[in-house]
Structure formats: C-alpha cells, structure tokens
Amino acid sequence: MDVDLRQLRAFLAVADELHFGRAAERLRIAQPALSQQIRRTERDLGVDLFVRTSRSVALTAAGRVLQGRARSLLDQAGRDLDEVVRVGRGEAGRLDVGFVVSALPLGPIERVQAFRQRYPLVRVELTEGYSSTLLARIVRGELDLAVLRDPDPDPAVRFLPFRTERFVAAVPHGHRLAGRTAIRGSELVDDPFVFFPAVAGAVATARNLAPVVADGRRPEIVQEATTWATVLHLVGAGLGVTIAPESATLAAPDTVVLLPLQDDPHRSELVWAVRADDDREILRNFIVATET
C-alpha cells in the first residue's frame, strides 16, 4: 500500500462532507481531480471507502475505520514534521554542555537557563569536569560545547570569548606577606606552591604561574590537587601558597588570605568551546541566546 498524506487529506474532506462538490471546494481543487484521488486511494488499499449513488455519498465500514485512523495519522505526521522543522531551526533537540566548576561564579549556568527559557523544547544536559578532559570530549563528539578555562589550542575546536579575569595570590595566615594590602607575584617565587597537576593543560599552568615567574625562575610545586577548593584548603593548612583566578577564590576558607597582584597584566580567560566543523542552528541559537 502506498497512500500518501495528500490522499488521506482528500479522503477526510469527502468523509467529513459526504459530498464531493463541497469537499472539492474545501480543498480548493476541481471535483474531477478529487474523484480521481479517491478512486486511486481505494485502488491502493484494495477496498471501497464510499458507497456512491446519484443522490448521496456514504462511508463503508472500511471508510469509517479509515476516517478515525486518517485523522490520527495526519495529526501525528504534523507533529513529527513540526519537530523536524524545529530541530532544523535549532528550536528542539538536545545539547550536552560541559563546564569547569571555577567558572560557576561568573554565570555560565545562568546563561544556560536563559537558553532553556527561550527554547523549552531543547533538552540541555550539564557535565562538570576539567578543561583538558572537557576539551577532549568535545573533540570526540561527546559534548556539544563547554565553558573552559585557559584551554590548550586544538585545531578541531573553535573558542568563543566568555569572560576574562585577574589572578590573585592566596597565602596562609601567618605568612610573611599576609599583612600586606597587595603584592607582586614575583615575591612568591621562592615559596612552596600548591597547584594543579600538569594534565590540567600547558596554557592553564603557564598563565597561572606567569605572575610569579621572575628572571626565569619558577616556583617549586610541592603539593598537587585537582580542585581549587582543595588547593585553597591546603594553602590554608600551611602547605604552601598559590596563584588563582579571582572567581576561584570566592569560597576560600578563613585560613587563607587573598592578596591582589600589583601591576600584573596576566589574565585568566574563560571561553565557550565548540567543534570547528559544527555549524548546527541549535548551537548558533545557544550562542545568541547566551550573549544577550
């Protein structure tokens, strides 16, 4: 059987009107063309749908069954095609979005929520992680986009600016510089450092340590941790000092003293990362919605 949607619409018009002339007017086609469509539908199905006389048109038993089914089929087809159009326009579907925890104070989740409100038919799934692992998942196609901090460059990924922020020094109470209102990063070059492991990324490591590097000397990292919260608690316990993006220190414990850096041009950059070849409308809609 090869009955298309146009044939079903023609059948329904006749079934509702029980009059070929009125049905043809409703469909805005000529009556002979409508009669041909109905005969073709009956031929395709192998059953009679109408009992025709010179004075009346009536549905057969098969016609009555098809009347209910055809309306349901057309309604479902309309919903399915509408979904196709919405997906094509980026108004429906699914987005898998990653984020680094240290970015949360700067509002990426609020931007995701703004997108959800504008496009309620898009399902957004959130995943937290480190910049390096989120970047790898974008390249593999496991994430659609992510907000990353100071990621390493990758030719398969394009980066869109999100936020830029200063670095601050974090030292324990009792540190020789804890009473100052501001310091130069180079004053910490001889202090033991608490920091992320190298797998966090070369760019992130270089940018965080850049304020401290002096005359080619780099600080010694004596303790590693995988979250800024852990790093700052270890600093507060006296294991060392660190340099951190300002937003990453908002939840620093009371055992930590935060010091602005004098005349420091270095900045931490947060970016949206998407695959370079991904030009779907749903991503464009997300970027536009989160920029406003």
From TrEMBL:
It comes from the Bacteria. Keywords: DNA-binding, Transcription, Transcription regulation. InterPro entries: LysR_HTH_N, LysR_subst-bd, WH-like_DNA-bd_sf, WH_DNA-bd_sf. CDD domains: PBP2_LTTR_aromatics_like. Residues 3-60 form the HTH lysR-type domain. Pfam families: HTH_1, LysR_substrate. This is LysR substrate-binding domain-containing protein. PANTHER family: HCA OPERON TRANSCRIPTIONAL ACTIVATOR HCAR, TRANSCRIPTIONAL DUAL REGULATOR HCAR-RELATED. Belongs to the LysR transcriptional regulatory family.
